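stuck on this fold:
=====
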Amino acid sequence: MTASHLYRGPIFDGDTHLYETPDAYSRYLPEQFKKDWNYHWKVGDDGEYALYVGHRKIEVSAGYFAEDGRVPPPGKLHEWLRAQKEGRENVDMRVPMTVDMLERDARLAKMDEFGVDGCFLYCGNMVATISYLDEPKACAAIMHAYNRWMLDEWAFNYKDRIYSAPLVSLADVDAACAEAEWAIKNGTRLFLMPMGPFDGKPPAHPDFDRFWSLLNEAHCRVVYHVSEAIYMKDHMAVWGEPVQQSRQRQTAFVWMHGYSERPVVETISSLIFWNFFARFPNLRVLSAENGAEWVPSTLIKMDKCRGMAKNGHWPGGQLKERPSNIFKRHVGVVAYPEDDLKTIVDQVGAHEWMVMGSDYPHAEGVPTPREFADEACTKLSAEQTRAVMHDNGRRFLSPVA
């Protein structure tokens, strides 16, 4: 750390990742699922090295790993994009994985180097495959196998510093409840879940209450991390826009309307309008790697629509307070370093919901967590900067006031 850094205090990182070891997907996968649902990297008939789930190519994974295991350099997205624009080969920028990308004790040492006292840790390449898990029984089996591997290698709460997020889906409610009970018993504080509805029902539908009751009793947290929200495929189809595509070949329309903030806005607003947090007051949800620019307009729109629907149908019971107040109490948002944090905070009138995230060791974030403040917090007060860089992340785990 140098004196030139804007912020020199402790950091809580709301968005970090691991890289999977070769047996991450197979170590505990039941034999009956291995034929059609095995995960493997290979060079396909199209000549691209990519991750496959069974016979299906995960398009977004192509061009990420090199065959020798090298990965994009952490926090070098701007340089990466510049290399693409200039026509240089991306592979020339890849670097060998370091041990902290694969092992928890090495990650703790890296966190000490970075000045990070705690972080939320999410899956690596697994996050790109969630939308391909479209058969509920197989989905539950794959997620549980993966979660067992994560528990082995990272633990769900490692020394109150690394909080790993096991995966769970509501596509099979019985399996989701079993997964929740198992993960909570093994110390988890948070779960990573797909965005959107399940089987034509919003996540706050009473059919899922027994799952949420388990999380509420344990004061767990739920994370909605950017990923392919597969429920968007039907809407994109009417526009003639395919989903599950390579990000390098994805259209601007899909970037804007089928990916990133729209799914998380719909999911969180659905929870609030269904009066979810009145029924499960101990829960908080976090939006990770969806940016924060959408927050001010979403809060304004939710408050307005509450008034417009005053005499309408409220499936979870009419709200007793403004949606924006519910949001500020129960929702956290990991901002992008390029977001205009000062304008966003001023528009919302509060900063306690905003959390920093480095995206380490992915290329899309910042090289080191402290550089988030250098890029994003220059117009914030010292108090606001410390809150974004540390206090809000820690508070997210605390009991809801």
The first strand starts at residue 11 and ends at 17. The domain at 11-17+102-396 is CATH 3.20.20.140 (TIM Barrel).
